[in-house]
Design the sequence.
């Protein structure tokens, strides 16, 4: 079974913020297939579905971003999902708004949600789908930027990148990750 995890912050206050791009990709996957996150456990919401005979678990942790590992680790342990079979979707300040990048491993790059996952999973070798949100201009604090909303111009780029990211997730369910990286990077 493969597991797709979108990172974000819970609650209406954080919907459609830059930091919740991982949730937006999960929402798009759910919308496409008419699914919902019907199970609540492990400090998160999730569902188990089949795509073309391939079992997939889709999750949104509902801890705050910085505590994502507290939700993901118990879920993976309970369902005995190896770290090699997870894909984590999250926002990335180091990519231009609307760009996506898939990686097989890496550090946290200053992202506290990824830091929490690395701390709880005790490995850096999990698949990632990074969605670019750009960097703040001027003297805006990073925390204010990531918890802020996209401009009208950026929304169009983000709608496109959320769709492309969801496409990449669907491809990964049926293909080798290296092949998917070559298709989307």
Sequence:
């Amino acid at each position: 079974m493969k597991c797709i995890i979108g990172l974000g912050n819970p609650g209406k206050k954080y919907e459609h913020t830059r930091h919740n791009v991982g949730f937006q990709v999960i929402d798009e996957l759910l919308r496409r297939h008419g699914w919902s996150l019907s199970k609540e456990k492990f400090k998160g919401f999730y569902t188990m579905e089949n795509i073309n005979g391939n079992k997939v678990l889709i999750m949104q942790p509902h801890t705050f971003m910085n505590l994502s590992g507290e939700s993901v680790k118990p879920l993976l342990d309970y369902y005995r999902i190896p770290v090699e079979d997870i894909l984590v979707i999250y926002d990335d300040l180091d990519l231009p708004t609307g760009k996506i990048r898939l990686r097989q491993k890496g550090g946290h790059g200053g992202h506290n949600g990824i830091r929490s996952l690395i701390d709880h999973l005790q490995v850096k070798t999990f698949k990632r789908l990074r969605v670019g949100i750009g960097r703040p201009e001027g003297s805006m604090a990073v925390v204010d930027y990531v918890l802020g909303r996209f401009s009208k111009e950026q929304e169009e780029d983000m709608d496109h990148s959320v769709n492309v990211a969801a496409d990449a997730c669907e491809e990964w369910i049926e293909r080798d990750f290296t092949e998917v990286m070559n298709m989307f990077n």
The mean pLDDT is 95. The first helix runs from residue 21 to 33. The beta strands are 2-6, 39-41, 44-51, 54-61, 86-92, 100-103, 127-132. The chain has one domain: 2-184.
